[in-house]
Structure of ATL5 protein:
Amino acid sequence: VFQGRILARRSVGQETRYEVEVQTPYRRRFPLVAREYVWVPNTCGCPPLREGGTYLLMARRHVNHEHTLNRILLQDDGYARPWTPREERLVREAARHC
């Protein structure tokens, strides 16, 4: 779970790749750097992420069976909400219990 700003969007094959500036990591099971690529397994724009927008994203790490692909994946029905102070408060409160 992290707060990030969408810098760019690009369709690559049947997927969409977002370049994201990681602003605030809240809960990490894998390391994040200041800029990451977040992949969505479709090109329909679901979830709708706008370039320049700041979002609270809940993504997972995806490693293929051959261990040749290691990326951050945001599923179609993944959690991606526009960032608001309320969202930040909810995440911080939840982090205390998890």
Summary: Residues 27 and 95 are 7 Å apart (CA to CA).
